[in-house]
TrEMBL record:
Keyword Magnesium attached: no
SMART domains xref list: AAA (SM00382)
One Pfam family from the record: ABC_tran
Protein name from the UniProt record: ABC transporter ATP-binding protein
InterPro entries referenced in this protein's UniProt entry, alphabetically: AAA+_ATPase (IPR003593), ABC_transporter-like_ATP-bd (IPR003439), ABC_transporter-like_CS (IPR017871), P-loop_NTPase (IPR027417)
A single MF term (Gene Ontology): ATP binding
Record's function text: Part of the ABC transporter complex HmuTUV involved in hemin import. Responsible for energy coupling to the transport system.
Positions of the ABC transporter domain: 1-224
Domain of life: Bacteria
Key words of the record: ATP-binding, Nucleotide-binding, Translocase, Transport
Length: 233
């Protein structure tokens, strides 16, 4: 069963519309969405998540869906442990509060990302990078068949960004489909496929999409190769 099937899908909000899109994503597959600000990456993610209705076309999405919102969208005075554990709230139904299993899952996710020491710290007093890691831990405990991550490495230093990228790789290895919207081309290069949101969307292997010519046309600026890895940046 496919994680995402989109046929002539048009996503949008307000007066904005993305071009028609055909896409199939299988369990365990990893897809990067790239494009300049305003290209519609978040709009497409939110459509996949069910937060926006398709303007037209057909969309089938595997459930449940785990969504990581963009940095700065979540603000609350909870501890980092509770903020993480709230990712399991949907499975609680009408239960009044989180239980030990929820908190244990939160602790395991925080430890997986190397931020277990933040468990009792108030979320709203953490640095922007620390908040992002806590929200990624919350995404991990949602246990979704489809993981949608909006700028997952934004605000992170290189070490933590690498840890997050590794965690997303692990989720795909567990059989979950992963879609990341990102400006981080090194993260995009780690995915199986890249979808460039141009006036005529282009999808392909990273080696075919992340080329200087394609990226210059996409972003409207020349991108020189990295002296270490050779990829455009």
């Amino acid at each position: 069963m496919s994680a995402i099937v989109a046929e002539r899908l048009v996503a949008g909000r307000g007066g904005f519309r993305l071009p028609s899109l055909d896409l199939t994503l299988m369990p365990g597959a990893r897809l990067a969405l790239i494009g300049p600000n305003g290209a519609g990456k978040s709009t497409l993610l939110n459509t996949f998540a069910g937060l926006l209705k398709p303007v037209s076309g057909r969309l089938s999405v595997a459930a449940p869906v785990a969504l990581l919102p963009p940095p700065g969208e979540v603000e609350a005075p909870f501890t980092a442990r509770r903020m993480t554990a709230l990712g399991r709230a949907a499975r609680r139904g009408f239960a009044s509060d989180l239980d030990r299993a929820d908190l244990a899952a939160a602790d395991a996710a925080l430890d997986r990302l190397g931020v277990a020491h933040l468990a009792e710290r108030p979320f709203d007093r953490l640095s922007s990078g620390q908040r992002q890691l806590v929200l990624i831990a919350r995404t991990l405990v949602q246990d979704g068949a489809l993981v949608l991550a909006d700028e997952p490495t934004a605000t992170l230093d290189p070490a933590h960004a690498a840890r997050v990228a590794g965690a997303l790789d692990d989720l795909a290895a567990e059989g979950r489909a992963v879609v990341v919207a990102t400006h981080d081309l090194s993260l995009a290069a780690r995915q199986d496929r890249v979808l460039a949101l141009t006036p005529a969307p282009v999808e392909g292997a990273p080696s075919g999409i992340l080329t200087p010519a394609t990226l210059q046309a996409l972003y409207g600026a020349p991108l020189s190769p990295c002296p270490t890895c050779g990829r455009p940046h």
